[in-house]
Amino acid sequence: MTTISVVKLSSARRRDIMLRVLGVRLLSRLLVLVCSLSLLSLLFLSRCGFNNLDADLVDTSGPSTSASSSLLEANQREEETRLEVERLTAEIRTLKLQILQLTGGPPGHGYDTSSMLNSSEIGDCLAARRQVDQAEITQGLSLNNEYELIAFSHFTVSRLYPVDLGLGKRVVEKPIGFKRKDLNEALLKAVDILNRNASIVGFQQSGTGTMSTVRYSEDDFLEGLYRIEPTTGTQYEMYFKTKNLNKSTAQTSSQGQSSSGAAGPQSSYTKITLMRPYAPIQFVGLEKQQRSREKELIHIILPLSGRTGTFQSFMDKFVKIGLKNDRRVHLTVVYFGTEGLSEARAIMSRVLMTRGSGGTNQNLRLLALNETFSRGKGLRVGAERAWGGEKDVLLFMCDVDIVFSARFLDRCRWNTAPGRKVYYPIVFSLYNPHVVYTLQGRDVPPETDQLVISRDTGFWRDFGYGMTCQYRSDFLRVRGFDENIVGWGGEDVTLYRKYVKSNIKVIRATDPGIFHIWHPKVCSGGPGQRLSTDQYRACIRSRALNEASHAQLGFLAFREDIASQAINLKSSPSKKKKSPPRKEKRPKQQQHSVLPANSRYAEFDSIEEMATEGRLTCDYIKELESIDMDAK
Questions:
Q1: Contact, 446 vs 530, CB < 8 A?
Q2: How confident is the model at residue 208 (pLDDT cuts 50, 70, 90)?
């Protein structure tokens, strides 16, 4: 019985404890609920009830519309002023940090710059400031000669007048692409700076504490200049129509700006100078190039029709450079028609039979198509029938008039990657050697001696896109050439545009290792062919550019005037009798020639003698011009 009573007692105690705990919990929850309701009531009264009460008080005191609007305007002005002060304070802090970085900071004072700007931001600011200081933008720099000066290009919103003519050789053009983006960014930056400055000046001069409502826009831009310094960055000088901030400052502004040459307030201008500084050179990537025995195999595709003599010259150079030197090239000749086919086959057979030439059945192949010549189709056939049935190969699309070096083949490998980049070298095109060397009074040298890069021997063929290195997968992905084009020109530009519009990177660069040999160009089309208007114009343009330089063509055009002038000089009374006696004391070379003793033309006594001997050439005129420039 005692045990049973103890158990009953313990269970009763447990029940009491549980009830107490539950009561405490309920009480605490009720207290929380009451407190929450109280807080909500207070918030409701503070937001709604008091506002209504304040509104009633205001209504009883008088009209409130003007007072509330004035209060809102004052708050808005205060907020704008506060934001402007914060911005200026941040700029001042940044400038102080830059000064401390440049000077090392005052002795005995420690500044924790990491709390305000990180080291990378400070480094970027300092680098940009150094570029601005080094540039010839705020003051002139002493240069060695006139060739070191970089000229500005003039521009407006819709027109650009470039100093360096681009691909189109246009003296005036519409800004497009990256040029348009660059100039637009500079213009928007200038407008933003002008608006900020107008707001600050208007706020200071108004006396009422209101911000200026004058806003500049792109329509206020008049004109500008820009140039690119390769080591510092792009410089801009832009001119805007000056806007008067308010009536009180209109006269002051017009008087201050009239010094630029304006006659009155309506002709005042504001000049703003900007610079896009180049950042320090950054590391982007490191790529290991292949060794000689691991070089990528290049498949050269050569469309051909006739011209077997030129093809013989091409094969001679290909054996020396491709088969004996590089040794990692294959050649596929796609021949159109039957005329000359046997000669082409014989030329390739002789290479195969020549001992030590390096030619085998594995690296030389001739494909014959009994069709009208189409360069686009020839390149497609050669690309589809690559050697060994490999999945992807590197192609070099070539012409029979091309001469290339072993280093060019390396650049062909370096600048291509499947799905990533293709190589379009700018070929150096040689002028007509009969014009170039005849004007110099020299015999036409062998072809190998003509491969010289100078302004008298040729030009960069920046309008030609026929020579290209690319992988077969990329060529097939963009669907190759337009095979509907028959005859001369047009198909290479179409393929180039496809790559430009794709996501593949196009490497377009001058290449000193590839030459286009001059040959007579016929723009009448082949038998049964008729060129379109665009093809004919492109052919005539190419023919004119290939013939000779501007100066050389000028000598040809005015050769009769030059000859008559030489005859007149020779038949005129001798000037040697009237020459001052002091000339007799000079050395013989300086007595008869205006050129220095080391000149190759110093042997001639006079200009008329040079004309008589046929040696009045472009080079002589250039030496005269250089002497005249030095004298000046």
A1: no
A2: low
Question: b/e string for 570-583 if b means 16 or more Cβ within 10 A?
Answer: eeeeeeeeeeeeee
Cβ atoms of residues 299 and 332 within 8 Å: yes
C-alpha 27: how far from chain center: 78
Longest dimension (CA), the chain: 165
- Contacts (Cβ under 8 Å, ≥6 apart) of 171: 161, 162, 165
∠ Cα 444 449 452 (to 5°): 105
Q: Which helix (H) or strand (E) holds 424?
A: strand 421-430
% of the chain residues with pLDDT over 70 = 65
Binning the chain into helix, strand and coil, the percentages to the nearest 5 are 50, 15, 35
Lowest mean pLDDT among 157-161, 265-269, 305-309, 339-343: 265-269
Q: Which range is most confident: 51-60, 205-214, 588-597?
A: 205-214
Q: Report the distance separating Cα 414 and Cα 405, nearest Å.
A: 15
pLDDT at residue 406 in the model? 93
Q: Where are the beta strands (DSSP E) in 318-386?
A: 329-336, 364-369
Name residue 200's beta-bridge partners: none
Residue range 167-175: mean pLDDT, rounded: 80
* Ramachandran sector of residue 212 (left: φ over 0; alpha: ψ -120 to 50; beta: rest): beta
Cβ neighbours for 374, distance < 8 A, ≥ 6 positions apart? 303, 336, 483, 485, 486, 491
- Rounded CA gap, 172 and 174, in Å? 7
**What are the DSSP calls for 479-542, one per residue?**
T---TT--SSSSHHHHHHHHHHHSSSEEEEEEEEEEEE-------S-STT----HHHHHHHHHH
The span from the CA of 46 to the CA of 60, in Å, is 20
| Phi, psi (rounded to 5 degrees) for 170 | -90, 135
SS3 563: helix
Residue type, 47: R
Judged by average pLDDT, the poorest of 23-32, 224-233, 343-352, 569-578 is 569-578
Burial 390-420 (b: 16+ CB within 10 A, else e): eeebbbbbbbbbbbbbeebbbbbbbbbbbee
d(CA 467, CA 487): 17
Q: Residue 304 — very low, low, confident or very high, per pLDDT cuts 50/70/90?
A: very high
Gap between the Cα atoms of 202 and 216, Å rounded: 13
The beta strand positions in 326-393, using DSSP E, are 329-336, 364-369
Q: Which pLDDT does position 535 carry in this prediction?
A: 77
Residue 262 in contact with residue 268, Cβ under 8 Å?
yes
Write the single-letter amino acid at 553: L
Whole-model pTM?
Answer: 0.63
432-466 exposure pattern, b = at least 16 Cβ within 10 A, e = fewer: bbebbbbbbbeeeeebeebbeeeebbbbebbebbb
pLDDT classification of 110: cutoffs 50, 70, 90: very low
How far apart (Å, rounded) are the C-alpha atoms in residues 232 and 235? 9
* pLDDT score of 49 more than 70: no
Cα-based angle 569, 571, 575 (whole degrees, multiple of 5): 65
Judging by DSSP bridges, how do beta strands 221-229 and 233-241 pair with one another? antiparallel
